Amino acid sequence: MIIYKWITALGRYLLLMGRTFQKPERMRMFMKRYYAEIQQLGIDSIGIVLLISLFIGAVICIQFKVNIQSAWMPKWVPGYATREIMLLEFSSSIMCLILSGKVGSNIASELGTMRVTQQIDALDIMGINSANYLILPKILGLVTMIPLLVIFSVSAGIVGAYATAYVGHIGTASELTLGMQYDFHQWFFWMGVIKAMVFAFIIASVSSYYGYNVKGGAVEVGKASTNAVVSSSILILFSDTFLTQLLS
Hey, CA dihedral for 17, 19, 21, 27, is it positive or negative? Predict the structure, then answer.
């Protein structure tokens, strides 16, 4: 029974994506909504991304310097570890998990509210492809902004690490710089960007699916938001494992 529900949900999801990824009927209106979604889903998330990344970068550096450092370990290891953790996992995977709670619930609740107030039905009656009109700008807007948020996150984490050297006197800036530059692989940066784009699509499309297919009232909107966040997080973790193996 559970497998049947999963297969049914997958089929409905694929059908919805088929309706979503069609050429917009009015490109001018589509671009207007696209820019609005960039503002709502991406730019409005910059603050929380920078704040979390700043403190995470500082904490990683402090943990390696204070609790893991030994006489046998080079002094540049905290800087190296901070760079690798921010590039490979935190700024792409963990940050997208955090954003799935903020952005995913936003998308699901917005579309769910439009469904229960019959705004989506009104669009369909007017002959408008409501899936394309409402969902495609959200997906493309989030896929556009998430890689930029990853760059901001990595930069903020590095700034947080340097802040420990100047404010907390945990190591020196020269030691951190040496670690940041040691054995740098540019592909690690692009790997994080690629993973973030996939995660952005998962967050936007899955959340839109749950919100678009809400049935009932306000209570069901809340359930849809919760299901969207949980499903997005699980899919991000599964795809992270697969993409890490594929891209490494």
Answer: negative
Paired tokens of 73: 């370990």
Within a domain: residue 83? yes
State how far the alpha carbon of 156 is from the alpha carbons of 56, 147, 214, 216, in Å: 9, 14, 38, 43
Do residues 60 and 81 make contact, with C-beta atoms less than 8 angstroms apart? yes
pLDDT in tens, 28-74: 888 899 999 888 888 888 888 888 888 888 888 888 777 766 667 77
Write out the residue range of the structural domain in which residue 218 sits: 30-247
**Cβ-based neighbours of 17, under 8 Å, separated by 6 or more:** 205
- 150 occurs within a structural domain: yes
pLDDT of residue 201: 93
Number of domains in the chain: 1
Provide CB contacts within 8 A for 146, sequence distance 6+.
42, 96, 99, 196, 197, 199, 200
Is residue 132 situated within a structural domain? yes
Q: Is residue 25 part of a domain?
A: no
**Nearest residue to 145 via CA among 35, 5, 57, 58:** 35
In contact, 65 and 168? CB cutoff 8 Å: no
Cα 229 to Cα 234: distance, rounded to the nearest angstrom: 9
| Residues 212-246: tens digit of each pLDDT | 988 877 788 888 888 999 999 999 999 988 888 88
Judge whether residue 132 has pLDDT over 80.
Answer: yes
